[in-house]
Fold:
Amino acid sequence: MKPRIRLIALSVAVAVNAGAVAVLHVAMVDGADQERLSLQEPERIVVTASRERAPERKLAARNCPNPQAL
Structure:
């Protein structure tokens, strides 16, 4: 009976270690993907809109003592 218990304990230990290695692998792959995405250059953003202020901004500009702060 003693060798059987040792074999069961060994198989449980191997299973737990395999699970831990799998989780670590997934975490490292996710970290590498995030690192790769953070190093990419952002695409050029072009805003094409009129320079006319929204009504809320006009009201804020009239009520603000220093319009350059807006």
Observations:
- The two ends are 81 Å apart (CA to CA).
- The chain has a mean pLDDT of 80.
- The chain has one domain: 2-69.
